[in-house]
Amino acid sequence: MSAPAELLAGARARRVFSGAAWSVGDARGPLDRGWTGTRSWEGPPLDGTDVWDLASVTKPVAGLVVMALAERGALGLDSTVGAHLPEYRGGDKAELTVGQLLAHTSGIPGQVPLYRDHPTRASLLEAVRLLPLTAKPGTRVQYSSQGLIILGLIAEAAAGQPLDALVAELVCAPLGLRDTVFRPDAGRRARAVATEDCPWRGRLVVGEVHDENAVVLGGVGGHAGLFSTLADMERLGTALAAGGRGLLRSDTFALMTAAHTDHLNERRALAWQGRDPAGSPAGEKFGPKSYGHTGFTGTSLWVDPEAGRYAVLLTNRVHPTRTGESITGVRRAFHDAAATLRADAPPPPRA
């Protein structure tokens, strides 16, 4: 049993999650992959075709869309919110830039449960527009799902297409991602891994986005809403480990994945987290130029460009409840195991 497999089987035994799937590899593909556990605590065993709620791993995928649109001249990193969204003109967000939204330096607060008081898409989007800034733009990294919601709206306005269509065209189609979608259909929902027994909805959530603000938005947002499979995520990881192959020009990709906020309180690339010196979800052994993203449901995707290695971890750590922080240590240990996995072992079979 590989080190990642043993680690994740142990975490499942400690009830950190009911199921986990993983892939560690490089630009040629996976070096180690597998799955352990069940789709829910009472559900069927994972079989490798399982559909996972990516949560905030949606953010860098939306970021790839924005960078692809920038390559095409549809928008610029210095473009302002007001230039693309007329309803924002004259407000405190009019002069915020696409680059600030990507780097989480806009000053827009994050993790605000707007869904509690705004039960419709129109009212929630208006609440996002009116949300007061809590930092001067450009002075602080302040992780903001609301900023990514706005970024998704900008992408839609710039391209004249809905965000789900843009993800399908600019990310999924080039890489052959067949199951990476917003709003899974009935067939994919039947393969979905359970998330939370949601107090707000009064039921166990399966195959429907966990993030409540995304629910109100109709399941599609720049901040959350994507579902995917292990096979699709390792295809994305492989492309990232190959320098963005099939997605962006090399100079665009280098700009996106470089650290942009080292003069501030946290390391951020554009729509990606950087590896902070202490406490990084990437653990201790991924290199200093590593970038990636985590998702609240227990997902993550990290890449070490210097080692040419990616690591995908998919879990349902919010099942049946979001309480508990055990995933933090598991995630760090997983990345340490992924970083030290030998590259000379025969590759595992794909599902």
Q: State the helix count.
A: 12
Main sheet makeup: 6 strands, antiparallel
Number of domains: 2
Order of helices and strands: HEEEHHHHHHEHEEHEHHEEEEH
- Please estimate the helix content: 25-40%
Low-pLDDT stretches are none
What would CATH call the architecture of the largest domain?
Answer: 3-Layer(aba) Sandwich
Which sequence of strands runs across the widest sheet? 2-1-11-10-9-8
Portion of residues in beta strands equals: 15-25%
CATH superfamily of the largest domain: DD-peptidase/beta-lactamase superfamily
From the spread of the alpha carbons, the general shape counts as globular
First-to-last CA distance: 18 Å
What's the mean pLDDT score?
97
> What would the CATH topology of the largest domain be?
Beta-lactamase
Domain Beta-lactamase-related: 7-325
GO molecular function: hydrolase activity
Keywords: Hydrolase
Protein name: Beta-lactamase family protein
SSE topology:
Elements: H1 3-13, E1 19-26, E2 29-37, E3 52-53, H2 58-71, H3 81-84, H4 98-103, H5 121-130, H6 145-159, H7 163-175, E4 181-182, H8 186-189, E5 194-198, E6 203-206, H9 212-216, E7 226-228, H10 230-241, H11 250-257, E8 273-274, E9 291-295, E10 299-304, E11 309-315, H12 326-339
Antiparallel strand pairs: 1-2, 1-11, 3-7, 4-7, 5-6, 8-9, 9-10, 10-11
Protein name: Beta-lactamase family protein
Keywords: Hydrolase
Organism: Streptomyces odorifer
